[in-house]
Each structure stands twice: as structure tokens, then as C-alpha cells.
Amino acid sequence: MKVERDLHMSRGDGESSYATNSRLQVCASSTAACTTTACKKLALNYSRTLLTRVLVPQEKSILKTRPVLHKAVAAAHASLSLAAGTMVVADLGCSSGPNTLLVVSEVLGAIAKQREELQCGQRPPVHVQFFLNDLPGNDFNLVFQSLEMFKKLAAKEKGESLPPYYVAGLPGSFYTRLFPDRSVHLFHSSYCLMWRSKAPEELSKGMVLNEGNMYIWETTPLSVVNLYRRQFQEDFLLFLKLRHSELVSGGKMVLTFLGRKNKNVLRGEVSCIYGLLSQALQSLVQQSRVEKEKLDSFNLPFYSPSVDEVKEVMKQSDLFDINHIELFESNWDPHDDLDGDLVLDNVQSGVNAAKCIRAVFEPLIMHHFGEHILHDLFEIFAQNVAKHLQKVKTKYPVIVLSLKARRAPKYPADGRCYSVFAQRQLM
């Protein structure tokens, strides 16, 4: 598996696409469930729903992250000097669903609101440059096709309060440098940082270390758990270092990603749903439709950390101050907005959850196992999820993290010495 080639959401706007099945992050529908017809029109219409705020009110993700994002946007905007001509905002792992342009809409709305509250009518508005980043396999065409409609509706919705803004695509891994030093004011990333730069190398060297599993689950050896944890620590530390170099002094980051509430890694909530997907693959192995060796060599480049694990890496990096951190939960069924432990229809919830997972995993599974198993695999998976939800309603733990970059040290950490004149220390 090559992450930069194979890891992308299911493209287009068809029934199994990510654009149609990304309601876990945010839903652009006022009904309990999007219809197939409406979802197929999503590529042209989701910009309209973002601007008119037709959102399901119970959607926990948007309710939890919107205030945190608006606060970070306001702080970044307020910190700009009068001479600053542009505010640079980057959305890392933008994907191509309805939540892609939502970030643009939310940032513009927060800036417009702040200008109105501060009565900045006489001050020239700051220009906003957006960079939408994802891996090269992302369906950027779907995003770009929606921009013209988005711009027209933005101008109509926000009027004169709308700041001048520009949107560009930026393909590349966020585990590499993406921007020049000290050039970005705000980074945003939603439901991406649980993905690793690669699966632990030891799992891909031929020896079967995690038999029958694609990720951490009940039968996973502790040694494999430690490999996954180490990969998370290395990747997250690298991510923080890269972004700190690219952020202006005091720049902000708002990160939302799947985490873990259960302290027992082998019983993590996200691990559970991937364990059910592994069981579906095992069923196909028993039917001789999938080779056992294929399953044993399929290892996800993924890790859902606990809040304590996130804090530990933050402390190790010593590059950011934590303005806000919390964990909330979101139902497996993206169309289930009920709090509590009640599942009204476990069969339908199984189907809904399976569609959501398929939109994310279809490219990875298709590349490794072949396209011919997709329909039957996710049908069995939906049944597995339904049986699980009949026993217990399980939820995704989601970590929301708001960070502020600390000022750069006066001298480089590697001991090199530069002229204070060259560094403008005396100016």
C-alpha cells in the first residue's frame, strides 16, 4: 500500500462516493437522511446549503467545532497588523465532500462578523487566501466545479461584509513541507490526523504479526499495538514541527480527528468498527473469495489516539500552547442524531454506517483485494454492524484541538549561530 497513491476518498458524486456519504462531519440536508437523487446533485448544490446554513441542528461535529474555529479565526484576524495585506488559511485534508467549502464559508463568515462588531468599515478589508490541501488522488475537480456557484452565493449572502478571498488547490501530504517559513496564519484539519503517513514498516515485511486483522482489535499482540502507537507519535510530532515552521508567530491551528475514549487500546471504539470490517473480510476468506494472505497483509495506516496520548506528544514537541482540547462522541450511523443509547433501527443504521465507511475505504480495499468483492463485503459488513448495534450503541470519539504557535527561539535549536543582523534581531 502506498498512502499517497491509494489513500483518497471515493471520488465523484455517486451513491458510494464520499461527497454523498460524508455526513459524519457535517450534513447539508434539513431532512433525516439525504435521498439518492439529492445526493447525486450534491456536487453542484452543496455550496448553496453551506451559505444558507441549512444544517441539521443536532449534528454534534459542527456544533462542537464551529465555536472553536470561529474563535481561532477571530484571534488570527485580530492579530494582523494594518500593513498585513493577506491572511493565509490552509485546510489540510480537505477531501471533496460538502465539508470542503464549509471551511471557506465559516472563515469568511467569522471575519465578516468580527469586522461588523469592531466597526471596521473604514479600514480596508484583509484579503484572505485559502489553500485546499489533500493527497494527489483527491477529487479536486469536484471541488473546483462548485467554486463559481459558491462565489455567487457568497456575494449574495454576505454582501459588502464579504472580504476579498481567493481559493487554490494544493496537492501533497501534510507529512511534508507545504508552505514557506512563517507564511500561514491559520491551519485547519478535519477528520484527517488519525491517518498515518504509512502503516508500521514491520507489518509489511512479510511476517504475519496481526493475523486476521486490518488494525488493532481484540487478538492484536501488544507488540503490534506498540508499533502503531510509535508510528502515531512519530507522525504527529513531525506534523507539529512542519506546521510550526510554516505558521507566523502566534499562528493558530484547529484540528479535529477520531480518537479513543476507552483506555484499553484493544477495545477502542474505532477499532471495534474496523474489527467488524475485518470479520466481513474473514467471511469472504472462508468462502474462498479472498486469499487469507491478502487479509493478513492488509494493514491500515491509521491510529486513533487518546487525549492523554495527544497531550504527551504536544508536551514533547514544546511548540504550541493548547487553547482548547476536548473529546465528544458521534454516532456510528451518520443519520442518527439521537443522544443516549437507543438505536431506533439497527438494520438501517448498519446500512448507513457501512455506506459511510465504504466511501472512505473503497479505494484502499479495491486496490488491495480487487473491485469484485466490494458489494458483498459491505453487505456483510452492514449486517455485522447491525448485530453489534442491537447489543450496544457505540460511538466515534472525536478530539477537537485548538493550538497557538509559540514564538520561534532566538537561536536555532541545532546550535548553529546566525548574525543577529541577518535575523533582524536588532531592528
How does this structure look, described?
The protein is α/β, with parallel strands linked by helices. The chain has a single domain (3-21, 36-405), classed as Vaccinia Virus protein VP39 (Rossmann fold), CATH 3.40.50.150. Helix content is 41%, strand content 15%. The protein has helices at 3-6, 36-40, 42-52, 60-78, 100-117, 140-158, 222-246, 269-286, 292-296, 307-317, 346-369, 374-391, and strands at 86-92, 127-134, 165-171, 184-190, 247-258, 320-331, 395-405. Strands 3-2-1-4-5-7-6 form a 7-stranded mixed beta sheet, sandwiched between helices. α5 (100-117) links the parallel β1 (86-92) and β2 (127-134). α3 (42-52) packs parallel to α6 (140-158), α4 (60-78) packs across α5 and α11 (346-369) packs antiparallel against α12 (374-391). The longest helix is centred in the middle third of the chain and has 25 residues, at 222-246. The radius of gyration is 22 Å and the shape is globular. Residues 5-14, 16-59 and 409-427 have low confidence and may be disordered.
